[in-house]
Predict the 3D structure of the following.
Amino acid sequence: MIMAGIGVASGRTWAVVGDDVSSAASCCGSARSSVADGVTVAGDELWATLSSSESEAGDDDGDEATACDIQQHLDCMNAASDEVNALQRALAEHAERRRALEAVWASGGARLAGAAGREGLLAARACALQSQYCHAAQEAVAAASARYSVSSAAGAAQEHAACLAQWRDAQGRLAESRRRLEACGAEVAAYACDYLETEALYRDELAEIDGLVAASAMRLCEAKTRYRSAMDALEALSEELHARRGGGAGRITCGPRDGAIAPTN
């Protein structure tokens, strides 16, 4: 489900999502275009190779074992084909989700940014950054206090004092950044804060999509490798059967399950 971040300021509600995601569609398109590279092989050609022998003296133990191996490899190949096609569809869905995010954010984000103005956004970003610094400084004080409470070393006392000084400085800079944001006006400040909050929600969803794309691309590569390995094994078994029968023919009776197809673009 596409993320919907709601920014509310002065009675106005903006539903906004997104950021620049043009690279996502490119990534997905590349994955789809390369799915069949070195993988898709015409089934007719494969079975023409595997069916080119005819038994001269009926089935023996070796032929039965070969037939079982062939069927196992065909099952693996068909399963890998299904997974490749499913992952192609998943990548296409991820690309569509990115395009939707981009379209909504391009519209709603621009409206919020326009309402906040350049100065309002700059002041809000500075305030958010100083808030992060202040929080980090406060955590450093807590850690230094814990060490100081169990140590009488001079270094622990100096560290604690330094951390306290940094925290007080961060608090002062945060207060100043808040005054600058308030000077922009309550409405502008509200729009600017809404913009930053919604942008953070968007970036969280974009990171989620990136993770899904990366995982799907990895699984796609693995499925293609399994398909290729199974097909190579089938070709090797066909050559082995021909060699064992001196080039004579023997029909292989096992085949792929109904409806199975090779991976496609």
User: Anything to note?
Assistant: The radius of gyration is 32 Å. The longest strand covers residues 5-9. The longest helix spans residues 61-149.
